[in-house]
Design brief:
- The chain is mainly α.
- Helix content is 64%, strand content 0%.
- The radius of gyration is 16 Å and the shape is elongated.
Length: 90
């Protein structure tokens, strides 16, 4: 994990939530992933007493973390496909 992405003291609850929810998404054909659903975030927040403005912040941060994850995964898949193509053409 890059140093700038290391959890800080104040954001531990966000990382715990994301780790609990990171596989609560759809995996359509052809190797993609969809974002974590609003429903999953809302249910987690309700279960953990995150409401009002705190929920708005929670949702924004969780979606930002998930967006980065999806970008990283897409880049990882692209590199794997490129490596596979290069092996076939070698």
């Amino acid at each position: 994990m890059p140093e700038e992405a290391e959890p800080q003291g104040w954001d531990g609850y966000l990382w715990r939530a994301w780790n609990a929810l990171k596989f609560d998404r759809n995996y359509p054909g052809m190797g993609g992933e969809t974002p974590i659903s609003y429903t999953a975030y809302a249910r987690y927040a309700d279960d953990h007493g995150i409401r009002g403005e705190e929920f708005e912040f929670f949702l924004k941060m969780m979606q930002a973390i998930d967006d980065e994850w999806l970008s990283w995964r897409a880049e990882q898949r692209r590199r794997e496909e490129e490596a596979s193509k290069n092996r076939r053409n070698a």
